[in-house]
Amino acid sequence: LAAIGSSTFRGAGALIVNSNATFSVPNGPSLSRNVTNSGLTLIGSTLGPGSLSANTNIFWTNLPSAKMTLFQSGGLNVNYFGGPAPLFNNAGLVQNALPNQNASIAWTFTNSGQVSVSATGLMAFTHGFTQTAGSTVISNRATMSVTGPSSVTILGGSLSGNGTVSGNVVNSGTVHPGGSPGQLSFGNTFTNNASG
């Protein structure tokens, strides 16, 4: 299934991407219904950037078998401002595609699966990042950015790698720098709670 140009997915139902299916988003469609993904979603491609915009009341659920890859400045955007951001619940894998590739997620993001920020790439979260389980891995010279008043909140699971977190970090889980040896850099405030 490919969403092209100014197309819109809307209605009272839901979009279900099965485990053997691919949902391809090359350039700028709009989403007005909830999505349950257990297959592969591609935002953009090796040929160029892509983006997917959604209304404020949308829920995207990435099941454990699901994978989302964001290519070349790929982004999850909002159609309009003034309400709560769309919600993305990840129990699968979310990643930027290749070294030097940037991605942005303007939805409220919760992770219990895996988030992978590839080497020398950037993944920006503009409406917060909360991890309840699973892992976030920031590869060598990669950056995970959280902007505004939001923070990277690790309630469970691990934050690891050799990259940089640009933004505030609040840890109640496990922070595991590098691959022994290795180094995680924090560009703002790091708070390690009692359980962290």
Compose a concise summary of this entry.
With 196 residues, this protein is mainly β.
Provide an overview of this structure.
With about 200 residues, this protein is an all-beta fold. The protein is about 0% helix and about 50% strand. The protein has no helices and 24 strands. The radius of gyration is 16 Å and the shape is globular. About 40% of the residues are buried.
Q: Could you list some keywords that capture this structure?
A:
196 residues; mainly beta; 16-stranded parallel sheet; globular
Helix and strand topology:
Blueprint lengths: L7 E10 L4 E4 L4 E8 L2 E4 L7 E4 L4 E4 L4 E4 L3 E5 L8 E4 L2 E4 L5 E4 L2 E4 L2 E4 L4 E4 L3 E3 L3 E4 L4 E4 L4 E4 L3 E4 L2 E3 L1 E4 L2 E4 L7 E2 L3 E3 L4
Parallel strand pairs: 1-3, 2-4, 3-5, 3-6, 4-7, 5-8, 6-9, 7-10, 8-11, 9-12, 10-13, 11-14, 12-15, 13-16, 14-17, 15-18, 16-19, 17-20, 18-21, 19-22, 20-23, 21-24
Sheet with the most strands?
16 strands, parallel
- Using the alpha-carbon principal axes, give the shape: globular
Structural class by SSE content = mainly beta
Number of H- or I-type helical stretches: 0
User: What is the residue-averaged pLDDT?
Assistant: 88
Low-confidence segments, given as residue ranges, are none
- Helical content stands at under 10%
Radius of gyration (Å) = 16 Å
Number of strands: 24
Instruction: Give the ordered list of helices and strands.
Output: EEEEEEEEEEEEEEEEEEEEEEEE
Distance between the termini: 42 Å
Strand content: over 45%
